[in-house]
Amino acid sequence: MTTPYAWTFYRSGGVDQVTLSSGEDLRHLAELDPKLWVALSMPTRGVDLDPRTLDLLDTDKDGHIRHPEVLAAVAWVCAQLKDPARLFKGGDAVPLDALHDGAVRAAARRMLSALGTPDATQISIADATLGEAKFAEAVCNGDGLIHPECAAEPVRGVIADVIACHGSELDRAGKPSIDKVRADAFLAQVHALIAWHEQAGADVLVLGDRTPAAAEAVRAVRAKIDDYFTRCRLAAFDPRAGAALNASDAELAAMSPHELSAASAEVAALPLARIAANATLPLSQGVNPAWEARIATFAGAAVSPLLGVRDALTEAAWRELQDKLAAYDAWYAAEPETTLGTLDLARLRAIVAANPAAELDKLFADDLAVKPELDAVTDVEKLCRFQRDLGKLLRNYVNFSEFYTRKGAVFQAGTLYLDARGCTLVVEVADAAKHGTMAPMAGAYLAYCECTRVGEKKTIAAAFTAGEVDNLMIGRNGVFVDRAGQDWEATITKLVESPISIRQAFWAPYKKLVRMIEERVAKRASSADAAATSKLETVAATVTTVPAVGEPAHPAAAAPAPSPVPKIDVGTIAAIGVAIGGIGAFATAVMATFFGLGWWMPIGLGGVLLAISGPSMLLAFIKLRRRNLGPLLDANGWAINAMTRINVPFGTALTDLAMLPAGARRAARDPYAEREPPWRLYTTLVLVLALVVAWYIGRLDHLLPSAVRSTTVLGDAAPAAQPAHPMVLPEAPPAAPAPAAPKQ
Prior knowledge:
The chain is of the alpha+beta class. The chain has 28 helices and 19 strands.
């Protein structure tokens, strides 16, 4: 029984991931349960990997790299390299002595020789690309395609005809070429078309070379002539039909206001000539103007050569003419469908005479003979690219080690600098609708930004995982620096709000209260300002009103009577005093309760704060535990297979806050600083007031000498000197008298 391979796992960011560090890990990668892979599919675009490498990995060309394709690439590399662990070192140059003997190593040596460096000990991506281009320029380059330059005349012209009639595809060198399927289909159509032409004997071409023109002239008017003779037969069948089948007065009257021509559709729709029983078709005079030219061509090309010159055509003559062309029409209808419309009969016969089939087959065979060699040349480039990029892909596919070690994952698009922060968890948004649906499941605070740069435009989603969110709002501008170091103008277009940290959740209720107070104060101030403005407008209107000339002024009537000055009611003053006294009593009771806690006062204060901030902190704790990278990548076409959590410590590391550099100095004086409130004075006054209240209610008496205790100074007026009022219980009702005993 085979012993299973012993894998090593590590934990980062709360996620268990497999360790890939040795060649044996790569050789046994196919044995690793796919459920333990972090990803099972990724797109070939929008990631920080060479698109050419990703295209080589994407063997089915569907735009995604899937789990079997990764395994196939790793297995192929293991078959080429003596030590597959070179993938983890990277580098775009492969030493020749690191390769097993085989086609790839031989092709590498051949390429180096073709480049003039036969003694080189390693081959790079640049060498492989240049060498492949040289081999691709050869006449036979192993791709199964040939282009006109591969052959001499007349086969060269045949290849050009195939491209013109059947299209082409680009060969390794990027030249328009044909494959054997196109060549065979072209020659088959040529032979079929030639055979069809050979069937046209004298019985078909009744007029020789003029037969096609005669048949074409007949086809142009056949339907209209059939319509004419059918109408004439109906007129012979019923004389009443004659008037109805000709143009009516109403139709002619409707056309009369318009500007008519022989090309008018209304004119062309009228009968070919005057309808009458047993009438003949005039070929010159009396023909519908819209059809005169076609009838004249018909008469000259078909009627005169086949029936003789005449001015009119009977229905019997019309049938006779069609019978004479029936064989041609049948032959014409049997023409095979081809794509050779650009080639005339002479060119078709020249192609058949050249007999290019044997030469074309030889060209295809010679090209395919070097296919193994040229495929090996391509494999050299693939191996160089895989050594450089495949290890990086594995660390962003099988595990997410580059993401959790902050080396820069392939899906991280760059850094967004905004609001004194640098957000490194930034992904490009390929489908905004899909991303907007899935992103909230990530549980992260996201800012969608539209980025522009020299006419280019893209959309990104940046996760804010540290700091505050008070100044993040739609419309704010920042700078996005992509992986290539290019800077983009970034503007927030959408926010997906979620907690950033427990600390932020603690202060959130108080900030919300402050905002509510500010909004209410601003609203009241706005209302008061509006009322004052209204009064000023009234006064201004009154002052600037001038009586008309000759109109007596009535100031007494114009000015409103002054309002009587309200008198202060004694009851109102008493009510105000009672209210103030109640407020003072409530404050005294609260302070007494608070100071009554003694040394438990800090715990009581903490309980009050926890009661206010606790729900917000609990909600933030639950959401932060669910914060997950997966939905952000799934929305971009990834298939994330694991719970890629972003816990609070790791999330904090993904957003850099603005900090003064080490060793920096700060000037102590700001010439434009605002005057700071005297917080020390306020704090001192609050403490003094608290001590006075505590002394007044007697909470400090046990700490003070008897001469300065509140009970000594205030005597019976001190709250601590007042006897506690015992609870007075209501008296029990007198017991009911016992019922008298019945007399015996």
